[in-house]
Structures are given as C-alpha cells and as structure tokens.
Amino acid sequence: MSAYLVSVLSEGAIFGIMALGLNVIWGWSGDFDLAYYGYIAVGAYMTLVLTIGPAVAPAHYILGLTLPYPVAVVVAVITAMAVGLVVGSIALRHLRGIYFSIVTLGAVYVMYVLAGQYVPLFDGYNGLSGLFDPMGDWFGFDYLSYQYFFLGLSLVLFALVFLFMWRISGSRFGMALRTLREDERAAAAFGRDIYRLKLKGYVLGAGLGGFAGALFAAYLSAFNPSAWSPVEVIVLYSAVLVGGRGNIWGVALGVLIMGVLVQESTRFLPMVPGLGQLSTLHPQVLLAMRGVIIGLVLVLFLRFRPQGLLPERRYVDPQPSLYIAPQTA
Amino acid sequence: MLVTLGFALVTASILALSAVAFTLEYAVTNVANVSHGEILTAGAYAAYLVHQRTGSPLAAAVAAALAGGLVALAMHSAVIGPFIRFGASPTVVFIATLGMSFVIQNVLVIFFGAANVAYTLDPGAPQQIGPFLLTPLDVEIIASAIAITLALFLIISRTKFGKALRAVSQNRELARVTGINATRVAASTFFLAGLVAGYAGFVLAESVGSFNPYFGFGFFLITLTAAVAGGLGRAFGTLVGAVMVGLVLEFAQTVRLPGGGYVSASYNLAFAFAILAIVILVRPRGLFTNARRTVFE
Q1: Nearest to B273 among A106, A285, A303 (CB)
Q2: For the whole model, what pTM was predicted?
Q3: Would you say A81 and A206 are in contact if contact means Cβ atoms under 8 Å apart?
Q4: Any idea what DSSP says for residue B213?
Q5: Where in the sequence is the domain holding B249, given as residue range(s)?
Q6: Which residues in chain A have their CB less than 8 angstroms from residue B79's CB?
Q7: Quick check: A99 contacting B, CB < 8 Å?
Q8: What's the average pLDDT block by block, 10 residues per block, for chain A (329 residues)?
Q9: Residue B295 located in a structural domain
C-alpha cells in the first residue's frame, strides 16, 4: 500500500465519523444544521491547545497544556458538545426549517470570526500546530509505521462509531428522532418532548463532530482558519445525501463516493482534453473543480434522487392491529 | 463621528439595494435564494472586465446590472423554478441554492483564481455636504441607490407587472387562477432583482476596493440580516432594515472597548449575525409586524 493511499484512507475514515455525526442531526432529526463544521473545528482546536504545550511568543493561545492525546480527545469532545448545547438550545427551541439553518449559519460564522480574529483564543489567523504523531512514542513507531498505525486507529474508531450508530439507529431514541423529522405535531401528540429529544440528538451529533475534529487535528498535526471554512459542510452534506440520508450504510457509501472516490478522481481531471490547460493556470483549480462537481452532485441528487443511493428503510409495524375493511354495500 | 455617519450611509445604501433585491426574490418564490450573493459577485466581475476594456464607469455599471440580471434569471429558470414546480420544500430549495452558490464560487475560482482583484474608481476629494463628509463617489452611490429604490417602488406600486408581482407574492395559486403566469412573473422579478443586485455588486466592489469569488457570499450574510430584520418578502420593511443594519454595523466600529481600542471591522459578520439571531428569536417575522411567532416557521 502506498503512503498516499494510507493517507487518503485515514482521511476517509475521519470524514466518515464526521458524516455519521451529521447524519444524526440531518438524517434522523431532520434539521439542516450549518454550524456542524464549527464543532469539528472546536474539537480540532481544543485537542491542539491541550497537547502542544504552552505558547511561545509571539504566539498566543489559551491553556497550552501537554495532556496525553486520549485525555485531550475526551476534553475536546466534551467542549464541542458544550458548544453544541449552547447553539442547539437557542436554535432548536422555536426555530425550524430555514430559520434554524440561518441561525446556525450565524453561529458558525461567529465561531469562525472569533477563531480567526481573536488572537488570544487560538492564535488567530496563524492557528495552531505541533501535534506530531500522537501516541507514536508510546509504542516506538517511526514515521512510516506510524502512518499505518494511524490508519488502523482511524478505521477501528470509525468501525466503533458505526457500530454505536447502528445500535442507536434501531433504538427507541433513533426511532423517536425520525418521528420528529416526519411529523413533529404527531410526536408531540404522543407525548414526546420534542425540544429535549432534538437537543439530545443535536448534542450527540456535535460530540461526534468534535471527536472527528480531534482525530483530524492529529491527522493534519495543525489547524488554522485557512484549513477550514463553514462552507466545507456542503461536502459532508453531499456525502450523506448521495449515500442515503438516515441510513448509516448509505452514509458510509456516500463517504466512500464523495469523500474518497471524487477526491481521488479529480486528480485525473487534467488528463481530460481541454481541462489540462485550465488546470495549469493556478494551483486552486483542482480544488475548485472538485467543488463544482460536489455542488452539482448535491443539487442533482436533491432534485432527482433525494432518498440517495441506499434509501433509508421505512419501518413497518411488525404486528399491525387488525384492519377492518370498510363495509361496502 | 460625522465621517462614520457618511460611511454608514454608503454601506446602508449598498445594503439596501442588495437586501431589497433579495426580498423581492423571496416574495415571488417564498424560498430564500442563498446564491443571491453570487449575483453581486457576477456584477463585480462583469464591471471589472468591461471597465478594463472600455474605461467607462457607466459601461461598467450597465454590464454589472446586466450580468446580475442574467445570472439571477438563470438561477430561477435552472434551479429555483424547477424545484418549486417539483414541489420541493423551502428547506430543500435553501440547500439547493446553497449548493449552487458553492458551484458558482468555484467556477469563478477556476476562471479568475481565488486572489483578491483590486478595483477602485477615483473617489474625488471629500466634501462637506450638510453634516456629512462625503466624496463625490459616495454621493453618486447614495443618489443612485435612492433613485433605484424609487424606481422599484414605482414599478411595484404603479405598473401592471407590479400588481402581478404583489398578487403572486400574496397568494401564488390565487394569482394563477386569475390568469397570471406566476412562473413568468417570478422569472421577470428575478431578472429585475438581478439587475439591482448586480449593480449593488459593482458599487460594493468599488467602495471596498477589491473583490474575490467569495466576496458576494460574505455580503449575502449581512444582506440576510437586513432582510430578516425588515421582514422577509416585505420590500419596504427590508429597506428600513437595511438602513438600520448598515448604521449599526458602522457605528459598532466606533464603540470604544473597555480595554481601550476599537472593535475591528473584521467582526462585522459576527455582529451582523448576533443581530440576526436576536431578531429571529424575538421577532421572527421582522421588526415591523406583530404577527405571532410559531414553532413551525
């Protein structure tokens, strides 16, 4: 396996955890949340400030501890969940539909501007760096074998999160979230506390985002405002939508297609006649072409196959009550 | 202080143009066009390219408006219209237009690169006009914004097309029953709103001094604040909302912080959204209505 493939697969596994978290909020609970990438960023930033040690002038950032990586991940996840709790408790109480989306978009831009401009927090535009091969020295890995270790770690964690989501998917909680997506009034009529349920789902999603962010920080070994943008969440949405919103197998498939295949195939775009010259213009062209493809796929799927490639299984009552056919004369 | 008020008037006029255009788009379709910002971006690029070739600011302004109108028309006929006919919910159209905005930004990056393009007209020497210190360019921007708003007002209130527009925005089905071609009215409204927004993109690029493929999206977020504050789909409420948000944003920068120093302009976006969140939570239908709020917005 080439080092390149190892890197792509590790990123894919992290991307998969992000998409599974988004699936809780959008796939099950049904809210189009634009703040999601903010929780990933909180997870990544917190992991870094907890592990890279005190700031050396002229850098400024909060905390600057040297905790062991797993402890830092736990704290980062808790922080992301706390931020999600604040945003969710404001946005979910009265707002649905586009008003919810607009407020979450606002929340993520406040986070983005704060992280990018308020220097004492995460060193502003410079961002944080210096998390090299966390846990590598515990086992004495060299650079190359660490890459394999990290790939294994990411895949195992993705599998664990997938298993966890699989359990939740069929649980009463998972079913209740889906009910809210389909018909809030009906759920309320059956005595569900809509706000609490939605908030629980939202915080769970934010926590998974933070967890993925913590892994992402280890993968990138640095994080700064040019490494993320709130709009990035569109890529995650396209993965969840293409695979099958609400179905975790679909989400995994979507990640494989949008996160790994599209990402990889765009490298070959310059070989397409006519595009080759364009791509020599400037360095961002490849990334921009990937953006165009992802955006178009999102719009086309929304229009022609909103249920995705692997649609969510509709739940059927296994023991339906007796159906009495209407009497016809 | 007076200097700030001068700046605030310029910001407010540009914001008013963009927000009124956005709210007209909302009025005839009942969906938020998230790719509205890209109309402004298209206007800025068209103005820049034409200005480079002809050297005439007037030609640049016309090109910006036309480019904006065509882009808006294309958005309506290619994405928003088909989605509405297909019966998509407002949230689905919101997602689709967000996706389109992502596509347009990236297409612009492919052709023009992501770097900032510097673009300024000579503003002339600042003059004392009434209580304000304004450059001739500022005066032109403010005057053109007032003229365009007046023209829109006349179109909406006095013409047959305006009557159809109001009918479609109040009740699309009922309007169709009376023989109005709602799709055509919506498309024409998008073209009209695009003309205004394209021009707004041109003057915004002028007053900021540079632009890039993401520049319209950033301004869209402030536009959204103004439109929601004034009431989505209400043209005149939006106008007042835009002026208020424009003033608040400029004045926020003159507030002295407790530790000394001023609030940086880079926090503008965060400020705008703080206002937006408060407005949505307290008066989700805008500041100028007493309509009850509902969970199922």
Answers
A1: A106
A2: 0.90
A3: yes
A4: T
A5: 2-282
A6: 299
A7: yes
A8: 85 96 95 95 94 83 87 96 95 87 89 86 86 80 86 96 95 92 89 93 97 95 86 92 94 93 77 65 79 94 93 79 63
A9: no
